[in-house]
């Protein structure tokens, strides 16, 4: 996988650019800007570059070695500098997100902006949405897959959530990968609950049919009411299901010793929502103009931190490339002013 695929060697432009986050959008932008000749510094809180490509997406879809090859190409052929285990955040603020356990150093956003000619924020969406917190036996699918990748890469000995009877809320691609993992991990009963019809889910029927043959049960047209908790531990899930024979919703309760939730993930900008000078909406997404500029001078943003969690890598790559083109245009204009 080549991120600087549009050139063979760096161009002759001058200037330094910081990219915060090294997921698909950040690496695509780095490849474009490195090709133009800019000095590119990438700040990444995780121990490897790649973001969700390395730590959430199944390896059979994107081989980790392919991502590493592209990152090494940026480093060796274009002198892109990577600062791993480094989190960039606004001074005096803090927020805990998935992946923070690897952070060794925190850089202030203000300092990074001051030391570069332009900054691209591409920090993604690393705050999984859940229905309840601080309850045992409840986890998000995003976190579950993340923990598996850490184990696969030998980065963490943390225990993986395990349950004999599992209920999963959601019907996106990560849900099916999590269900596959659970089957391999010894789960005996798995139920997947979702609010729509089978044909309305953003996933091909192939996965549903495959998992059904493995014994996974799908329950459609559901509305989650509550997780039943006893002594801070989830015991069951209460939901309503539409009964077509009776043309009405029926309330049901299903016992479970592990409940997984896949309801997306909030954007994780390097500042809290109260930072009005950057422009962050109430869902955590950074607000940009038509040229990827934030309210802060010389600061741009792209990818999931702007659009919300992106499931299609092509969208992330394209967004990062487009942001990089506007950064190049703006810096080129300044040289002639």
Give a written overview of the molecule.
The structure is a single chain. This protein is an alpha/beta fold and 337 residues long. The protein has 2 domains: 16-126 and 265-335, FAD/NAD(P)-binding domain (3-Layer(bba) Sandwich); 130-261, FAD/NAD(P)-binding domain, CATH 3.50.50.60. It is built from 9 helices and 17 strands. The chain has helices at 24-36, 52-55, 64-78, 109-114, 141-152, 173-184, 205-213, 304-307, 313-335; strands at 16-20, 39-43, 81-83, 86-89, 105-108, 118-121, 127-128, 138-140, 165-169, 189-193, 217-219, 222-230, 233-243, 248-255, 258-261, 265-266, 299-301. The strands form 5 sheets. A 5-stranded parallel beta sheet has the order 3-2-1-6-17, with helices on one face. Strands 8-15-9-10-11 form a 5-stranded parallel beta sheet. A 3-stranded antiparallel beta sheet has the order 12-13-14, with no helix packed on it. Helix 7 (205-213) links the parallel strand 10 (189-193) and strand 11 (217-219).
